[in-house]
Design goal:
The protein is an alpha/beta fold. It has helices spanning 5-9, 48-57, 87-100, 119-131, 147-153, 171-188, 199-208, 228-238; strands at 12-21, 38-41, 62-68, 106-111, 135-138, 158-160, 163-164, 190-195, 217-219. Helix 3 (87-100) crosses helix 4 (119-131) and helix 4 crosses helix 5. The N and C termini lie far apart (43 Å).
Length: 240
C-alpha cells in the first residue's frame, strides 16, 4: 500500500486504553503490550496501585477507572460514584482514589450507563477534575451521556471512546474491531479504543498493534489527543 509523503508526515493517531486494571494478578501481562498504551486502574483493588506504579515508571499514561452507577444496577467496587451521593461525597471519594494513585492524569468511567446520563453528578465530577487539572475520558457506556457537556461547561478537557475492541473474547472479533479502529482513524485522523486485560485480548493485540504503522497510524498516549496545555501539565509533573 502506498502513502503520500504528506500523509506519512502527518500520521493518523490512535490511543488504546486498557480498562479494568487491578483486580487480577494476571493483569500484569497487559503491561507488556507494545507501544504507548494507556492504562486505567480501578481504585482500591488488590493489584491496582502496584501495577499503576509499574505503568507510570515506564512512562505510560495512567488513568483512574472510576466505577459509576449503571442502569442494570450491577454491583460496584470501591471508589464508586452513585446517584444517592452528594457533592461532598463525590469529592471525598475521588480524593481517596487519587491519594492511592496520585500520578494519574485523569479518569474514565467504569460502567456508568445510568450516572453519566445525570447532569448534576457529572457536574460535581467535573468540578473536582477542574480543581486538580485532570481530564475526562467518556467510556460512552450510554449514548445519552451528559459527561461531555458537563466537562465543556466546567472547562475540563474531554474526549470520548470510539471503539470497544473486546466485547467478545475471540481473535476474530477483536481483529474485526481493530479494523474498525484503523478505518475510523484514517477517516477522522484520531481514534480512541478501549480494551481489557483479558488473556485473549492481550494475545491478539500483541499481534495487531505492530500493524498500525503499515496503515500510517501512530499509537500515542491518550494525553497526546488532548489540548497542548494538558500535555504541558503532564510533562511538568513527570519530571518532578
Amino acid at each position: 500500500m502506498l502513502f503520500s509523503v504528506q500523509s506519512i508526515a502527518q500520521a493518523n493517531q490512535v490511543a488504546i486504553v486498557i480498562d479494568d486494571m487491578g483486580y487480577r494478578y494476571t493483569d500484569k501481562h497487559a503491561l507488556t503490550l507494545p507501544g504507548a498504551i494507556t492504562y486505567a486502574f480501578l481504585p482500591h483493588t488488590t493489584y491496582g496501585k502496584k501495577l499503576a506504579m509499574q505503568a507510570n515508571s515506564t512512562n505510560h499514561d495512567v488513568l483512574i477507572h472510576i466505577p459509576m452507577e449503571s442502569e442494570n444496577r450491577k454491583k460496584l467496587g470501591p471508589g464508586a460514584l452513585t446517584s444517592n451521593m452528594d457533592e461532598q461525597a463525590f469529592s471525598q471519594s475521588l480524593t481517596k482514589s487519587f491519594a492511592e494513585i496520585p500520578f494519574a492524569i485523569g479518569i474514565n468511567n467504569h460502567m456508568g450507563s445510568y450516572l453519566t446520563q445525570l447532569y448534576q453528578p457529572m457536574a460535581w465530577t467535573m468540578t473536582f477534575l477542574k480543581q486538580h487539572d485532570l481530564f475526562f475520558l467518556d467510556s460512552k457506556t450510554s449514548p445519552h451521556s451528559q459527561a461531555q457537556q458537563a466537562a465543556i461547561d466546567f472547562g475540563v478537557p474531554v474526549k470520548a471512546r470510539h471503539i470497544f475492541l473486546d466485547n467478545e473474547l475471540t481473535e476474530k472479533y477483536i481483529s474485526q474491531q481493530f479494523k474498525q479502529l484503523i478505518h475510523f482513524a484514517q477517516k477522522h485522523q484520531t481514534a480512541i479504543a478501549i480494551a481489557h486485560p483479558h488473556p485473549e485480548t492481550v494475545a491478539t493485540l500483541n499481534k495487531l498493534i505492530p500493524t498500525l504503522k503499515l496503515h500510517g497510524i501512530e499509537l500515542v498516549p491518550l494525553s497526546r489527543l488532548y489540548p497542548t496545555s494538558i500535555n504541558k501539565v503532564i510533562n511538568s509533573t513527570a519530571t518532578e
